[in-house]
# Entry
Amino acid sequence: MVFTVRVRWADEGHTRRTVLAAATGLAAAAGLAGCDLGDPPPQWHPAPDALLPLLAATIKLADRYEATIAAVPALSDRLTPLRDDHRAHIVALAREIGIDERSPSASPLPSVSAGVPDASPPSDPTAAVAALVAAEKVGQALAQSACLSAPSYRAALLGSITACRATHLEVLR
# Structure
């Protein structure tokens, strides 16, 4: 069975083209009715850089040296070059990550719970150096882990930071 439907467009002043355009407009409106055009499109947020924990730990380690130098001025000659190395590492890591290297501590950095201790340094020189040795060991392990897990283009930077921290341990012993 075939059914034929006759529409009298021409009699009512409508052409086939205007009827099809109206039908297409209605179909498009029905399709968009389910879309919420008022919401902004979802934003893509890249994952935080994998070097941020190392940068945060390096800042804490440099601050630890600074506090130890202030607490035990007799160690200043021995500790200042090591602290300066850590400050140079901060600048290099900040540049690698894309943070303004002039003020990386102002950037949003993750907290370092398993990193360098926050306690104030001991006033006894031997105990102060022992505390720095412990902090350097943690820092070296973190740098070594970052070096081993980082992409190859970052290996030279992270390898040199790891090696520098190993020399710090030798200087402190």
